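Q: I have 293 residues here and want to know how they pack in 3D. Can you give me a structure?
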Amino acid sequence: MKILVYGSLNIDLIFTVDHIVKPGETIASTGLEKSAGGKGANQAAALAKAGMDVYMAGKIGQDGRFLTDLLGSYGVNTDKVVIYGGATGQALIQLDRKGQNSIILYAGGNGEIEKEEIPGVLESFGPGDGVLLQNEIPHIGRIIESAKAKGMKVFLNPSPYDEKIANLPLELVDVFFVNELEAAALAALPEETPLPIIMDRLTACFDRAEIILTAGKDGAYYGSGKEREKGEIIDLPVADTTGAGDTFTGYYIAAREKQFPLAEALDLACKAASIAVSRKGAMESIPFKDEVF
């Protein structure tokens, strides 16, 4: 299977702080790092590090060329990443002493993708291939419809979740990757609703899809029809939670493509995410396959 990741590429500016800044508060940062990020790029890196045949599509400025260089070093084909005249997407990340983060996004090139570009990006993909999408670029609905028309499998991580998600052709999605908040929103239930109830609602609403629900230290849950399964994390010290979900997503897809049983695939993806959060950074923290499989 060839996997096309059609999504965001960001320059991450990571400020190390004692705590996440409060409204009206000014605090000093004890460190600043510039690194590669963007949910699309992170998930492409995870897939490649897990041994998949992966292609990245998106748009960056001249300031983001190091992103394609880094992705290429992991084995990601970046021929479908367009260089345009504006700025690359940016993420301003606060990282506190407990390893938790708060993120502000600037779309940059991620917001400049045009509908007319989609057929050209998809032209070399077909039945048996997959497309992995997030919610950090426009025209997600058109990409889903175009990919399904070509017989591709659609993986969707509706993050960051907003009101536009409800207007997408979600009935065409084959596999959803959601965290607890995204799952509740997608199920139209309160955030405090127990996860089993949320999962039951999602599997009823999307009865042809697989639901993968990540729950931090509580591991990950799988639902499809009446089938349920759970994966467990490895308890490692947390250094930085940035990119944990992206790591999980890439490794879960890879594990299933490598024919690992469902429960083992969940555990392996949780293991990869656990390793990633024990290291600082996003893309760079993602483990290689020899550390996971």
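Q: Anything worth noting?
A: The mean pLDDT is 95. The radius of gyration is 18 Å.
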